[in-house]
């Protein structure tokens, strides 16, 4: 498994890197059979240290955790605890409700755009109704079952996930509703 351990405008010592590899490695080995890579980023926010970790699994799913603490080791330990909880839930769901995936999730590329909000400070009408593109990026759309898509959305803590439905071979959307339930859009 590959580890990428870095700090944003802070130095990360060799002892902390070793601690991250051993502790995170134990958590991942306990719940994930074939992890591919892990990224851990440390930063400072005011008087607190922030630890953000992302683990990519061979099934195509991604687990993310973030924690704030006044000490850098405590921030990592809290983050590692959250990662442990997410991977434990993920494994339980796979075992109880979903088929065991024998091959990795197929990923498709798509363009992603960030558009200007269009809200202007004055009360004038805009010259054109065409949105202004602020940024253009490449995004990945996984090919998943509906259950796996819901699990991926919950693991990522995202409000929405677009995926290619394995059974119907079309684009679908799952999203968190205001009432706390999950919505699923399946175009005909």
What do these coordinates show?
- This protein is an alpha+beta fold.
- It has three helices and nine strands.
- The strands form two sheets. The protein has a five-stranded mixed beta sheet with strand order 5-6-7-8-9. A four-stranded mixed beta sheet has the order 1-2-3-4.
- Strand 2 (35-45) and strand 3 form a beta hairpin.
- Helix 1 (14-31) runs parallel beside helix 2 (72-97).
- The protein is globular.
Describe the protein's topology.
Elements: E1 2-7, H1 14-31, E2 35-45, E3 48-57, E4 62-69, H2 72-97, E5 107-115, E6 133-144, H3 146-156, E7 160-165, E8 171-176, E9 182-185
Helix pairs in contact: 1-2
Distance between the termini: 41 Å
Main β sheet profile: 5 strands, mixed
Instruction: Give the CATH topology of the largest domain.
Output: Double Stranded RNA Binding Domain
In what order do the strands lie side by side in the largest sheet? 5-6-7-8-9
The low-pLDDT segments are none
N-to-C order of helices and strands: EHEEEHEEHEEE
- What gyration radius follows from the Cα positions, in whole Å? 20 Å
The gross shape turns out to be globular
Structural class, judged by helices and strands? alpha+beta
CATH class of the largest domain: Alpha Beta
Full CATH superfamily name of the largest domain: Ribosome hibernation promotion factor-like
Per DSSP E runs of 2 or more residues, the count of β-strands stands at: 9
- Mean pLDDT score, rounded? 82
Helix fraction?
A: 25-40%
Could you tell me the strand content as a percent range? 35-45%
Protein name: Ribosome hibernation promoting factor
Function: Required for dimerization of active 70S ribosomes into 100S ribosomes in stationary phase; 100S ribosomes are translationally inactive and sometimes present during exponential growth.
Pfam families: Ribosom_S30AE_C, Ribosomal_S30AE
Subcellular location: Cytoplasm
């Amino acid at each position: 498994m590959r580890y990428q351990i870095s700090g944003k405008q802070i130095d990360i010592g060799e002892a902390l890197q070793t601690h991250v590899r051993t502790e995170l490695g134990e958590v991942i080995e306990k719940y994930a059979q074939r992890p591919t890579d892990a990224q851990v980023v440390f930063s400072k926010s005011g008087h607190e240290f922030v630890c953000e970790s992302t683990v990519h699994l061979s099934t195509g799913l991604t687990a993310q955790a973030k924690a704030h603490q006044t000490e850098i080791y405590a921030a990592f330990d809290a983050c590692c605890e959250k990662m442990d909880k997410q991977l434990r839930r993920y494994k339980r769901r796979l075992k109880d409700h979903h088929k065991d995936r024998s091959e990795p999730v197929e990923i498709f590329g798509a363009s992603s755009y960030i558009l200007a909000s269009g809200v202007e400070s004055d009360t004038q009408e805009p010259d054109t109704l065409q949105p202004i593109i602020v940024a253009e990026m490449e995004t990945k759309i996984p090919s998943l079952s509906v259950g796996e898509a819901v699990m991926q959305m919950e693991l990522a803590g995202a409000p929405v996930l677009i995926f290619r439905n394995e059974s119907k071979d079309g684009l679908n959307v799952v999203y968190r509703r205001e009432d706390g339930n999950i919505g699923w859009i399946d175009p005909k």
